[in-house]
Amino acid sequence: MNTNITSTTTIVNLVDQLDIIRQYIAIWFGLFLVIFGNIGNLLLITLFFSDTLLRVNPCSRYILSSSICDLVQLNSTLVIGILADGFNHDLTIRFSLCCKLRNYFDQLSSTTTLTFILLATIERYLLTSSKHHSCRLKHLLTKTRPISLVTVAIWSLISIPNLIEHSNTRQCQLTRSVTHAFIGLICLSFLPILLMFIFGVLTLNNLRKLGKHAQIIRAEQIYKRLLHIDKQLTILLLIQISIISLATLPFMTSYTYIIIFRHRFRSSSWRAWENLILLIIRFIHYLHNCIDFYIYMLVSSMFRHHFIKLMKRYYWYWSKGCCGRGNRRKRSLMRRHSNEEITKKCIFKQPISQKHSVLIIY
After folding, report:
1. Buried b vs exposed e over 245-282: b needs ≥16 C-beta within 10 Å?
2. Taking the model in full, what pTM does it have?
């Protein structure tokens, strides 16, 4: 009898300790992801919008669209999860509409993010391909605005069942069969990542072929920077695909586990360990929504250079008092100066002449 009481007390203490650990992880690691994810995505959006050559690049436009979707997912799904796991304030239990909206925006933002990265990967593959039949598809993917609108519209319609399907229990869960859940897992997560990986490998293969057949042409310095941007974006996109794959694979495994064992009996200690591990895996999954900007700064000298230049420009703007009504001429001169700086200065800080220069295309 005493042995049973002791074992029960030990299990209760273990469950309480695991719940406390899960609560601390949800608060500190979750808030870290929200704060640094929002800062990174906002800086990345500002960086793409401030550079003329980046803004007109199709690949950068798709990455920009995925960053906007990352902001939506961080400030909807992740914030609600932090309130529930860290502060015991689950809005999805109190308000059924909040549960439905969370499920809706979770699927919408995650699928659109993967789709935009997939479109950027296909665009990089077509850009580096030497096949003639890819020119028409390449031209089609340059129409980023209608493609982005159609992508968001399609996934908005596909995600509508998340507003309707809802369990009658006190947990915010979708009423789906095991077969339906597996089909959704394959179509919405596994298939886009597989396609990204395939086109990423093909793009890397094209880059190696182009590197073996490098040719020297004469070009303006502005085109030299355009080609440098294309090469940098291709490398960064391949790194981003690797991060998405590594972050999503544990999440897909945990989702499969939930589908299989959600109706089976588990002990309280097993459930406590399960909730802790699933929380960590879910936060790891959110990493790829947060660290794109920091990876770009770490890997790409082009992005570091432009970010420093952007910070200097804003510092000069605010320190010189260009915000008053009587300083419109100063603002106009500053914009003109920054545009000339973009178009007349090389990424390696070398002065650019108006004459043609020699360029090696990789």
Report:
1. eebbbbbbebbeeebeeeeeeeeeeeebebebebbbbb
2. 0.78
